[in-house]
């Protein structure tokens, strides 16, 4: 693993409450790509994203982000993180919110107009945030995360609740950002978003069960869509039983990995 990786995770374990919700993840996320983190509700996606941004207490393992330990102070302005709940001030307009966050982050004031344009919020710029729809509020949070042009964007279900047109526009934005060198990790429980990613990490029950390109995953599983591929990977693991799980490369998924 080297400089081409934005994130390197080794044998990561996390316990939340009584259960182990991440169970020995080893994975590498390449730089300058849109990496989709897909899996059913409760599979551990949010917990993994929290580990990457350094806000999750971990049990063991290491998480290295842009060459530094996750959570390091030096990473604060290099990472943009959008949670599932919008984190904006209701009593400010869209532009006022973004102006405030730009000031706090030390981002140039000109960034406000840029991120409003990128997230398609031009028509709502002077609207109070409390009067926006849920999808629009989510985009204000995304716009805030784009301020200062962070090297890594960690986005938890950014397209949830958006109509197909906006969803398509946001994926196009993610790819433009990646083409300009930004690394993105985007979670979703909607399997049909898989095809839009450069790489996929499929999660289930606190484990990454596949790490591949969308086309590589379909080829490896002989399936036509991500939903079928996901099921095929699960079946193959169950058929492999404990022998497969306890093999010498247990839990190891690298940028070159294949669905197993
Ligand atoms: N604060 C907490 N205390 C105890 N258990 C928790 C806590 N937060 C999450 N969990 C558990 O950890 C597991 C993984 O949750 P996580 O939110 O990471 O999943 P997810 O894949 O992001 O799900 P979703 O798509 O619904 O957001 C779940 O079983 C959940 O119940």
From TrEMBL:
<dbReference type="InterPro" id="IPR003593">
    <property type="entry name" value="AAA+_ATPase"/>
</dbReference>
<dbReference type="InterPro" id="IPR027417">
    <property type="entry name" value="P-loop_NTPase"/>
</dbReference>
<keyword id="KW-0547">Nucleotide-binding</keyword>
<keyword id="KW-0067">ATP-binding</keyword>
<dbReference type="InterPro" id="IPR003439">
    <property type="entry name" value="ABC_transporter-like_ATP-bd"/>
</dbReference>
<protein>
    <submittedName>
        <fullName>ABC transporter ATP-binding protein</fullName>
    </submittedName>
</protein>
<dbReference type="Pfam" id="PF00005">
    <property type="entry name" value="ABC_tran"/>
</dbReference>
<feature type="region of interest" description="Disordered">
    <location>
        <begin position="241"/>
        <end position="260"/>
    </location>
</feature>
<dbReference type="GO" id="GO:0005524">
    <property type="term" value="F:ATP binding"/>
</dbReference>
<feature type="domain" description="ABC transporter">
    <location>
        <begin position="7"/>
        <end position="230"/>
    </location>
</feature>
């Amino acid at each position: 693993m080297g400089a081409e990786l934005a994130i390197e995770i080794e044998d990561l374990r996390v316990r939340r409450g009584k259960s182990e919700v991440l169970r020995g993840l080893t994975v590498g996320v390449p730089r300058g790509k849109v990496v989709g983190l897909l899996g059913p509700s409760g599979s551990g996606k949010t917990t993994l994203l929290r580990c990457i941004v350094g806000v999750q207490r971990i049990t063991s393992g290491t998480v290295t982000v842009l060459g530094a330990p996750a959570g390091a102070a030096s990473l604060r302005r290099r990472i943009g993180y959008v949670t599932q709940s919008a984190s904006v001030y209701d009593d400010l307009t869209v532009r006022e919110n973004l102006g405030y966050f730009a000031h706090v982050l030390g981002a140039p004031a000109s960034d406000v107009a840029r991120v409003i344009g990128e997230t398609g919020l031009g028509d709502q710029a002077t609207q109070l945030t409390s009067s926006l729809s849920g999808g629009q509020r989510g985009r204000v949070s995304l716009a805030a995360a784009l301020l200062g042009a962070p090297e890594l964007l960690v986005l938890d279900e950014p397209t949830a609740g958006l109509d197909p047109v906006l969803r398509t526009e946001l994926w196009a934005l993610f790819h433009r950002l990646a083409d300009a060198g930004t690394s993105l990790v985007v979670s979703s429980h909607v399997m049909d978003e898989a095809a839009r990613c450069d790489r996929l990490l499929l999660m289930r029950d606190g484990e990454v069960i596949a790490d591949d390109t969308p086309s590589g995953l379909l080829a490896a599983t002989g399936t036509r869509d991500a939903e079928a591929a996901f099921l095929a990977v699960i079946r193959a693991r169950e058929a492999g039983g404990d022998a497969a799980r306890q093999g010498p490369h247990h839990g190891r998924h690298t940028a070159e990995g294949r669905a197993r």
